[in-house]
Amino acid sequence: MKTISIVLTNYPSHLSSFMETVYGYEYTHASICLDAMNEKMYSFNYKGFCMETVSKYKRHGVEKSISFQLQVTDAAFERLQSKIEQFVENREEFCYSSIGVVFCFVRIPFKRKKHYFCSQFVAEILAESGALKLKRRPSLYLPNHFYRELKEAAELQEIQYDILPEAV
After folding, report:
1. What is the pTM of this model?
2. Residue 17 is inside which H or E element, if any?
3. Which helix H or strand E contains 71, and what residues bound it?
4. What are the Cα distances from residue 55, in Å, to 58, 75, 77, 88, 115?
5. Which of 10, 41, 60, 69 is in the most buried spot, having the most CB atoms within 10 Å?
6. CATH for the stretch 2-161
7. Smallest Cα–Cα separation from 62: which of 9, 14, 19?
8. Radius of gyration over alpha carbons of the chain, in Å?
9. pLDDT digit string (tens) for 100-132?
10. d(CA 138, CA 58)
Protein backbone atom coordinates (compact mmCIF):
# COMPACT_ATOMS: atom_id res chain seq x y z
CA MET A 1 0.00 0.00 0.00
CA LYS A 2 1.11 3.55 -0.78
CA THR A 3 0.05 6.95 0.52
CA ILE A 4 -1.04 9.81 -1.73
CA SER A 5 -2.40 13.22 -0.80
CA ILE A 6 -5.20 15.36 -2.12
CA VAL A 7 -4.37 18.95 -1.23
CA LEU A 8 -7.06 21.62 -1.14
CA THR A 9 -6.20 25.29 -0.88
CA ASN A 10 -7.88 28.65 -1.07
CA TYR A 11 -5.95 30.02 -4.03
CA PRO A 12 -6.09 33.82 -4.43
CA SER A 13 -7.73 34.48 -7.81
CA HIS A 14 -10.86 36.11 -9.16
CA LEU A 15 -12.57 32.75 -9.63
CA SER A 16 -11.62 31.69 -6.09
CA SER A 17 -12.97 34.93 -4.64
CA PHE A 18 -16.20 34.41 -6.58
CA MET A 19 -16.55 30.81 -5.36
CA GLU A 20 -15.85 31.81 -1.77
CA THR A 21 -18.17 34.83 -1.77
CA VAL A 22 -21.12 33.45 -3.73
CA TYR A 23 -21.04 29.78 -2.75
CA GLY A 24 -19.20 29.91 0.58
CA TYR A 25 -16.54 27.49 -0.65
CA GLU A 26 -13.70 27.27 1.82
CA TYR A 27 -11.31 25.60 -0.62
CA THR A 28 -11.03 26.67 -4.24
CA HIS A 29 -8.10 24.70 -5.67
CA ALA A 30 -7.28 20.97 -5.72
CA SER A 31 -3.97 19.18 -6.34
CA ILE A 32 -2.74 15.61 -6.08
CA CYS A 33 0.56 14.54 -4.56
CA LEU A 34 2.13 11.10 -4.88
CA ASP A 35 3.63 11.16 -1.41
CA ALA A 36 2.54 12.01 2.11
CA MET A 37 5.01 14.89 2.42
CA ASN A 38 3.24 17.14 -0.13
CA GLU A 39 6.55 18.02 -1.76
CA LYS A 40 5.43 18.03 -5.40
CA MET A 41 1.79 18.45 -6.36
CA TYR A 42 0.10 18.23 -9.75
CA SER A 43 -2.92 20.18 -10.91
CA PHE A 44 -4.31 22.60 -13.49
CA ASN A 45 -4.39 26.37 -13.38
CA TYR A 46 -5.08 29.08 -15.96
CA LYS A 47 -1.84 28.20 -17.75
CA GLY A 48 -2.73 24.51 -18.06
CA PHE A 49 -1.12 21.49 -16.40
CA CYS A 50 1.20 22.52 -13.59
CA MET A 51 3.50 21.19 -10.91
CA GLU A 52 3.17 22.94 -7.57
CA THR A 53 5.07 23.08 -4.30
CA VAL A 54 4.28 24.37 -0.84
CA SER A 55 6.80 27.20 -1.32
CA LYS A 56 5.06 28.18 -4.59
CA TYR A 57 1.74 28.33 -2.74
CA LYS A 58 3.29 30.65 -0.15
CA ARG A 59 4.76 32.90 -2.85
CA HIS A 60 1.33 33.21 -4.47
CA GLY A 61 -0.38 34.18 -1.21
CA VAL A 62 -2.11 30.91 -0.39
CA GLU A 63 -2.88 30.87 3.32
CA LYS A 64 -5.48 28.18 3.89
CA SER A 65 -4.81 24.51 3.10
CA ILE A 66 -5.76 20.97 3.99
CA SER A 67 -4.22 17.65 2.97
CA PHE A 68 -6.14 14.37 2.85
CA GLN A 69 -3.75 11.43 2.97
CA LEU A 70 -5.22 8.34 1.34
CA GLN A 71 -3.95 4.79 1.32
CA VAL A 72 -4.10 3.21 -2.14
CA THR A 73 -3.04 -0.16 -3.51
CA ASP A 74 0.34 -0.51 -5.16
CA ALA A 75 -1.39 -1.16 -8.50
CA ALA A 76 -3.53 1.99 -8.21
CA PHE A 77 -0.44 3.99 -7.24
CA GLU A 78 1.45 2.75 -10.30
CA ARG A 79 -1.48 3.72 -12.54
CA LEU A 80 -1.62 7.17 -10.91
CA GLN A 81 2.11 7.60 -11.38
CA SER A 82 1.89 6.54 -15.03
CA LYS A 83 -1.00 8.92 -15.75
CA ILE A 84 0.78 11.84 -14.13
CA GLU A 85 3.98 11.06 -16.06
CA GLN A 86 1.93 11.23 -19.28
CA PHE A 87 0.70 14.69 -18.29
CA VAL A 88 4.22 15.84 -17.38
CA GLU A 89 5.69 14.57 -20.67
CA ASN A 90 2.91 16.12 -22.77
CA ARG A 91 2.14 19.19 -20.67
CA GLU A 92 2.06 21.57 -23.67
CA GLU A 93 -0.91 19.65 -25.12
CA PHE A 94 -3.19 20.30 -22.14
CA CYS A 95 -5.23 23.43 -21.47
CA TYR A 96 -7.28 24.87 -18.64
CA SER A 97 -11.04 24.45 -19.06
CA SER A 98 -12.81 27.64 -17.97
CA ILE A 99 -15.99 26.46 -19.67
CA GLY A 100 -15.73 23.19 -17.75
CA VAL A 101 -15.88 25.13 -14.48
CA VAL A 102 -19.00 26.96 -15.67
CA PHE A 103 -20.71 23.69 -16.61
CA CYS A 104 -19.67 22.19 -13.28
CA PHE A 105 -21.32 25.06 -11.40
CA VAL A 106 -24.61 24.36 -13.17
CA ARG A 107 -24.16 20.59 -12.68
CA ILE A 108 -23.89 19.70 -16.36
CA PRO A 109 -21.23 17.07 -17.14
CA PHE A 110 -18.85 18.46 -19.75
CA LYS A 111 -15.64 16.84 -20.97
CA ARG A 112 -13.44 18.36 -23.63
CA LYS A 113 -10.41 16.45 -24.86
CA LYS A 114 -7.15 17.59 -23.20
CA HIS A 115 -8.90 20.37 -21.24
CA TYR A 116 -9.22 20.26 -17.45
CA PHE A 117 -9.82 22.39 -14.41
CA CYS A 118 -8.02 21.53 -11.18
CA SER A 119 -10.58 19.37 -9.38
CA GLN A 120 -11.71 17.66 -12.59
CA PHE A 121 -8.11 16.60 -13.23
CA VAL A 122 -7.70 15.24 -9.69
CA ALA A 123 -11.05 13.43 -9.82
CA GLU A 124 -10.38 11.92 -13.23
CA ILE A 125 -6.99 10.44 -12.40
CA LEU A 126 -8.27 9.13 -9.06
CA ALA A 127 -11.19 7.43 -10.81
CA GLU A 128 -9.28 6.13 -13.84
CA SER A 129 -6.49 4.69 -11.70
CA GLY A 130 -8.91 2.93 -9.37
CA ALA A 131 -7.41 4.78 -6.38
CA LEU A 132 -10.79 6.07 -5.20
CA LYS A 133 -14.39 5.32 -6.08
CA LEU A 134 -16.07 8.65 -6.71
CA LYS A 135 -19.72 9.53 -6.15
CA ARG A 136 -20.06 11.67 -9.29
CA ARG A 137 -18.46 12.20 -12.69
CA PRO A 138 -15.02 13.85 -12.59
CA SER A 139 -16.30 16.87 -14.54
CA LEU A 140 -18.76 17.58 -11.71
CA TYR A 141 -16.17 18.01 -8.95
CA LEU A 142 -15.25 21.33 -7.44
CA PRO A 143 -12.58 21.43 -4.69
CA ASN A 144 -15.14 21.65 -1.88
CA HIS A 145 -16.79 18.44 -3.11
CA PHE A 146 -13.54 16.64 -2.25
CA TYR A 147 -13.58 18.18 1.21
CA ARG A 148 -16.94 16.59 2.00
CA GLU A 149 -16.30 13.29 0.25
CA LEU A 150 -12.75 12.55 1.37
CA LYS A 151 -13.58 13.00 5.06
CA GLU A 152 -15.75 9.87 4.75
CA ALA A 153 -13.54 7.83 2.39
CA ALA A 154 -12.52 4.36 3.57
CA GLU A 155 -9.05 5.06 2.14
CA LEU A 156 -8.54 8.10 4.41
CA GLN A 157 -5.46 7.74 6.57
CA GLU A 158 -4.99 11.23 7.97
CA ILE A 159 -6.10 14.83 7.56
CA GLN A 160 -3.51 17.58 7.96
CA TYR A 161 -4.75 21.14 8.35
CA ASP A 162 -2.73 24.19 7.33
CA ILE A 163 0.15 22.34 5.66
CA LEU A 164 1.81 25.57 4.59
CA PRO A 165 4.68 26.57 6.88
CA GLU A 166 4.44 29.90 8.64
CA ALA A 167 6.50 32.70 7.15
CA VAL A 168 9.70 33.29 9.07
Report:
1. 0.91
2. helix 14-23
3. strand 65-72
4. 5, 30, 25, 20, 26
5. 41
6. 3.90.1720.10
7. 9
8. 15
9. 999 999 999 999 999 999 999 999 999 999 999
10. 28
